[in-house]
Fold:
Amino acid sequence: MIPAPLPDPALRYRRIVLKLSGEALCGEDGGFGIRLETLQRVAGEISELARLGVQVGVVVGGGNIFRGLKGASAGMDRSQSDYMGMLATVINALALQDALEKCGTPTRVMTALEIRQVAEPYIRRRAMRHLEHGNVVIFAAGTGNPFFSTDTAAALRAAEIQAQVLLKATKVDGIYDRDPMRHEDAQMFSRITYDRFLADRIGVMDSTAVTLCRENRLPIRVFKLMERGNILRVCKGDEIGTIVE
Structure:
């Protein structure tokens, strides 16, 4: 087995979980499906991290294909709708795996729902072993339970594999005191506490995920995905976006 690369001493974080929304794979225009150019760019940045020795776990949402809450709001059974959303995350995970492997980065997809023909079932110790061997690990199918978001899945997996930080890649630069799309005078926080995040009901991440991070003292870094190189800059310790701790 090829040994994992030694980590670059300039890195602040050596093991991370990166949370990507399904919509992020559509590019800046949003919409439905997967934009291959965006997929390849994101894969290239993740591959660069892996080559520098960062142990990378990824949780990707499924909103570009099917969102469980949307189905439930249209009258579907909530559990059934959420399971469909979980399957959508598996599609995105397989697409990202393909893009990463085309960059030369060994990648494993591990699912909370068993789909052995296309992915490994999630086992915590096996996931950690994959990371230690230099594989990128994509955690798919959420927590495997309805009523929980992929944000919560990302917080759970980050805590389980003892990640140093949860990186939440979004469409905006960080967390603002009000919606920056609607208010030109919105102010971005460079730092915010878990309690303030929860009290103000900030919509960047759901409260269950943030509470889980607070209980495990896991910092969350919220930053803009579409600015090339941001993922690497965060791992090197650059103060971009907003830190929740």
In short: The mean pLDDT is 91.
